[in-house]
Amino acid sequence: MKLVGLLFALGLALVANPSSAETLSVDLRPAAANAASPQMGDRLSFRTTIRNDGTAAVHGLIAWISLVQLDKGKEQPVDLEDWSAHKAVTAASLAPGQILETDWPMRLIQAGTYRVVVSAVSRGSAGLVVSPFADFTVRQKPVVESQRVLPVALGLPLLIAVAMLWRRRRR
Amino acid sequence: MSAARLIARKEAGELLLSLRGLSWLMAVAVALSVFGLLLVSNTELSLLDNAQVVYDMVAIVTALGGLLALVVGLDAVAGERERGSLVALLLTPASRDAILSGKLGGIAVAWAVMYALALPYLWAVGSTGQNLREAVTILAVLGSPVVLGFGFFGMALGARLATARTALLTGLIGLMISASPLLLGPSLRQSAIGRAFDVINPISAAVNAYDGVIIDSQPVLGQWPHALLAAAWLVLALWLARSGFRRVAR
Fold it and tell me: Which residue positions does the secretion signal occupy (chain A) (predicted)?
């Protein structure tokens, strides 16, 4: 009876965690050229290594990058559309021991503290394989500079006002 | 000096040297300044928003340019008629086409001044330089026919309608309808009616080209379908102004 229960539990475990999900591993690391303290407008790159550690090939592999903002009160997933054109990678199959290396470049659009994670899934898997986290902070960069705007915004109307006064005086 | 050039010079002089013309320029400058100051006070802008503010500024310049050209165009016919100076002008030996060309030249000068006035503002808000040069170019290429078209449209209204007030009201309503894409969100513009309106609306053509070049970094030359619509609008408005002015001349 005990043996039947053990076999049943093992069967359930196999259905819940198919082998291909367990055989994939995803490693994520920032590129060496990344700035130590990046600011808005800079570009960062991350590199993933997806390895098939199992004994059978994995078919229909999809890996994608996710970015979340971690700032207090602004916790949210980030729409990558403006940050990166490279949001996913696919592979028809990954043989045992084979690795898939991918670079994930992105342009830093907004200041804040962020976390990057890459997730992978294959056709036969029911579970998700995720990479370790990579955190980074983007420094604020003034988008509209007051030193530029103020002289123009105040100076031009003033200049026209002077011209109007001059015309009025001449009349 | 030809009669057309003389009239254009007089029209331009009225804009640059008269208190009335300077007041119009002052109103435009204040509107652009208020927009610029609103941007400075916003500390939450992302890098993407820099392209967005340049796009917004270019769109505002186009709308204000259209308004200025419309008023200058209306004033060139309806204003002169109400001031009693149009008849005197028509009695001069200058041909009708020369007078019309001079008036059109005045509108072109008004837009050139407005464009020059907008350049420092664009430079000021486009601090990251993202597509700033392209924004200045697309404003000249697409904004000019659209704005000049509204100036010619103003002349046509001034010539055809009985009073300057009626012409001004009609012109303003037309401009507001045409400029509605600046106020409507993208979702509303994606409806069947919104898309149909975009096909015939010159300001939609300009705005879509601005969006493509400034925000999506598309090439300026790739905007030729929008430029074609803007050019068609210019030709139509010119034809309306010419036929309307000939009616006044008779």
Answer: 1-21
